[in-house]
Amino acid sequence: MTHWSPGRVIRLLVATSLTALVLWKASPLAALRIAAGADVRWIAVAILLVVADRALMAYRWLVLLCPIDADQRPPFGAIMRVFFVSTFLGTFLPASVGGDIVRAYGLAQLRVPRGPAVASVLMDRLLGVLSIVVVGVASLLLAPAGSLASTRAIVLSFTVATAACLAAALVVFSERVALMAHGVLMRLPFAALRRLASELTQATRAYARYHSELVNVLASSIGVQVLRVLQAYGLGRALGIDASAAAYFAFVPLILLVMLLPVSVNGIGTSQMAFVWFFGTVGVTGPEALALSVLFLALGVLGNLPGGLLYAFGPRAAPV
């Protein structure tokens, strides 16, 4: 029997409400007709780009396991199983946060200390957000003066994300800031949470010694974001959407930030709303943007299916 927690009910309500609102504003029948006429050649290109971005995502997480001692690091096959299974299970959990929790838990089940296990996933997420900001800001700088960069929502979103990444970087590289953060976390109400916070702070600080590895992961993360923008562009071309590449590079990073918010399941509802709103500012019709959002979401689900196969047919005794 499925347990329906209040949080899960709220997220499903949010996803349902946002999806209903988008469907009300953008004709679903028109979107279906547009999607039915998609060019399969561009769809195939987008699928190949998904394979490439999943490979890069797995690689960057492997690099982020560098602080874990060799004798505590699980075998390569077990690590890859945790990664791909977590991406699959994350499809049914709140945004990407659910998948992150599954990945950290799976790594801990492989006898990796709890602090480093959680820290590797946290650093992966933070560097991923930073890469979204880098790609988005670069696209704004290349955009014509007074066009995309003049949209307040875009500038504000990237500003908030940049501030969050800067705060995390200070915790990693500044001992004083790390001590301040540790002092705040030690005020948490439960002893178990305080112990986890202490372990996580210590494990996160360990990355301060791995400058080249962090640069490597950031570069790989930027590559992932560029691939995702190109995926959306390919899908747009498949649908015959007349929007510039600059618009995709400005809007898709923002949409990815919206999809990270743990307010719905797998970004359903929030992604459709974001696609319709942002692309509507450059003349893309509601049905076109809705069709693009559905295909983009479906492409992500398709990229997660290998994890489903591993989960269904992998070793039954394996973690996760």
Topology:
Layout: H1 6-25, H2 28-36, H3 40-63, H4 76-89, H5 97-109, H6 114-142, H7 152-173, H8 175-185, H9 191-205, H10 211-239, H11 245-260, H12 270-280, H13 286-313
Helix pairs in contact: 1-12, 2-13, 3-10, 3-13, 4-5, 4-13, 5-6, 6-7, 6-9, 6-10, 6-11, 7-8, 7-11, 8-9, 10-11, 10-13, 11-12, 12-13
Explain what the structure shows.
This protein has 13 helices and no strands. It has 320 residues and is an all-alpha fold. It has one domain. Helix 2 (28-36) crosses helix 13 and helix 7 packs across helix 11 (245-260). The chain is globular. The mean pLDDT is 80.
List keywords for this structure.
13 helices, globular, 320 residues, 0% strand, 75% helix
Task: Write a short abstract of this structure.
The protein contains 13 helices and no strands.
